[in-house]
Amino acid sequence: MAEQPTLNEQKLMRLLLAERKARAELEKRLASQEQALFRCDVITQQQELQLLAQEKLVSISTLAAGLAHELNTPSGFMRCNLQVMLKHWQTLREFVEQVSQDPSRVTDSRQTLNIDYLLEDGTDLIDESLLGINHISSIVQDLRMFAEDHADLSGIVDLKDCVEQSLWALELDGAALPALHQQLQQVPRIAGDRDKITLAVMQVLNNACQAAGPNGHVWLDLHIKSDQQIVLDIRDNGPGIANDILNRIFDPFFTTRPVGQGRGMGLAVARMVMSQHGGNIRVHTEPQVGSHFSLELPLPTPTLSSE
User: Core-most of 53, 59, 85, 263, by most CB within 10 Å?
Assistant: First the structure.
């Protein structure tokens, strides 16, 4: 006959059973929590994707609205000009027919049909239409540049020269400029596209000058920030940028300027150029104090900078 377990053995068996039960319940609880965490993670990822999709839709809507506005304005007056020119053309045909039938009526017909005015007005209409075509062409060029995902980095760029070229271009424009304070160090040359970097600098600098106004101030500081970066700081004492639009200033066609005074592509193109060269643009702004843009580019390799 088998021996009965002692009290201590019975107590130990009960403890073991209780521990197994507790462990099973704990494992069940942990499994339930893991499932809950997994569901939360899936929901979070879905929400992030939804937010990203909404942001993309907003950007696409801004781009589409800006593009439509910029194209509608020149195409509208070009259409109007063509309609007027069509009427002028019909009048000129009538004049030619009258003169063909009776050459002696040339003087009377010219005065009656106001031919001299039609010829002068026709020239103005053509000039205005050519301006509209050039405006549309520049928009297409900006979009093509913005859509490019790479740049030709085979050239060697002197950043100080790019800044000086940008200043020279602004002075040639003839507009009244604010007081410009320059502190431009001779930094190492970098590999890149000189024309594109000059364009990026000019876009940011032009924005700063317009923000400051002819009675304001703009500071330019080209220097080496660390062992890894060359920085061009462009600071103005303009009205600053409102916080509610700060995250949109780099969107294509976003502008706060009146119609006809800016397409809203400058900062978008500038950031794209910086990104193509491995750099970045940072902005800090304070209302009624001004804005501070930092164009950051990586330092070149010692081999390039010594060439």
Answer: 263
